[in-house]
Every structure is written in structure tokens, then in C-alpha cells.
Amino acid sequence: MATTTTAPQQRGRGGRERILAAAAQLFASQGINATGMEQVADRAPVSKRTLYAHFRTKNDLVLAHLESLASSGATLEGVLAREDIPPRERILRLFDRPAVDRPAVDQPAVDAAPVRGCPFIDAAAEFPDPESSVHSYAREQKIRMVQLVAALVTELGCREPAVLAEQLVTLADGAASRAMVLDDADYGRYARAAAEVLLERALPGAG
Predict the structure, then answer these.
(1) Could you give the CA distance from residue 103 to residue 108 in angstroms, rounded to a whole number?
(2) In this predicted model, what pLDDT tens digit does every residue of 132-158 receive, in sequence order?
(3) Which end of the chain has fewer CB atoms surrounding its CB within 10 Å, N or C?
């Protein structure tokens, strides 16, 4: 994907938004720890002064990046809050083929991007100290994921919703991680089949 933007885009988007967009691209392609603040400024593009005016430290930038992902609804957890989709289908969509980023209209086409895993798990792995702010935020999102699934299976009338929710999110996170390692966007189909069995057995009236 091209690393520059056109002048109209630069004027049309604020510096903070361009920084977060650049950080998202770089963190996804090369990892958080391998990405320097100078690289982010170059990709945005903004001056280093502007970058540090918005984000005093790299940790601040990483946290803002994760918060932006969480609020976008584009993460693994995002589908769970969609009230336009029935509860059971929301759960099963955790195992769908991940969305593929497409280049902007003024950028050249590129080969399909490699499959990425859960950004919160990736961030926690890069910040392994459980007390770090980044790891703590990632943990909060994974706990929230369990809570959302537990609420959905409770709505479905499933027995032992807390246990079932942990089983389902373990399947979802594991499938996302293996899809990334194997670069297989359809890998979630295996976990989806297992999730369907778990849901069927937990429904009222199951033997």
C-alpha cells in the first residue's frame, strides 16, 4: 500500500486521525515494538512536533490506537454488540472470515494483505507485563468479550452461561490466532463447527 496521501486528503483529515491511521497500518504490518514514532510521523504525514502534541509517549499512541479499534466495531468483539443481528448469529460471526483492508481510491492495488489475529492479544503479547497500561487495556477488552457472549447465551436460555461463554471465546481467540499463524482467512470454519455443537448442547431441552 502506498505510504503517501494526496493533498486533499491531508487537508480533509485532522492530524490526530492521520496519525492513528498511520499507526494502525504500521502496527499491523510490522508490530508495535518494531514501529518507531518517527516512522508514524513519516507515514501520517505530520511533523514530529505535531505527533508529540497529540501523543506525548508511544504508550499513549498505542492505547489510543487500541481504543480506536475497540470503538470502531471492526474487531472480533465488535459484532457481539450489533443489535440488528440475532444473538446466536452474533456469536457464530466471531468465526467468520475477517474483513480485508482495501486501498483508498487514489492508491494502487496491492496483493491481499496477510491475515491478522486479534489486535488485543497481539498487543498483550508485545507488552507482556500484566501491570502495563497496554496489557491491562487488552485484558479489559478480552474480559468484555466474555461478558458480551455470556449476555447473549443467557438471552438464548443456555445453561451455565459463564462457562459456555469462556468456551466460545477461547474457540474464537484460538481460531483467530491460528488463522494469523497459518495465513488462512477461512480457518474459523473449524471453530465455528465446534461452537455450533456447544450451542446446540447448551440450548434448553438438549439432552
Answers:
(1) 7
(2) 999 999 999 999 999 999 999 999 999
(3) C
pTM of the model: 0.83
Angle between helices 119-126 and 58-72 (to 10 degrees): 160
Average pLDDT of the residues in 151-175:
95
pLDDT bin (cut points 50, 70, 90) of residue 166 is very high
Among the listed residues 111, 85, 56, 97, the one whose alpha carbon sits nearest the alpha carbon of residue 180: 97
Confirm if 95 and 195 have CB atoms less than 8 A apart.
Answer: yes
Q: How many CB atoms lie within 10 A of CB 199?
A: 19
Residue-averaged pLDDT of the chain: 87
Residue by residue, what is the 3-state secondary structure of the chain?
A: CCCCCCHHHHHHCCHHHHHHHHHHHHHHHHCCCCCCHHHHHHHCCCCHHHHHHHCCCHHHHHHHHHHHHHHHCCCCCHHHHCCCCCHHHHHHHHHCCCCCCCCCCCCCCCCCCCCCCCHHHHHHHHCCCCCCHHHHHHHHHHHHHHHHHHHHHHHCCCCCHHHHHHHHHHHHHHHHHHHHHHCCCCCHHHHHHHHHHHHHHHCCCCC
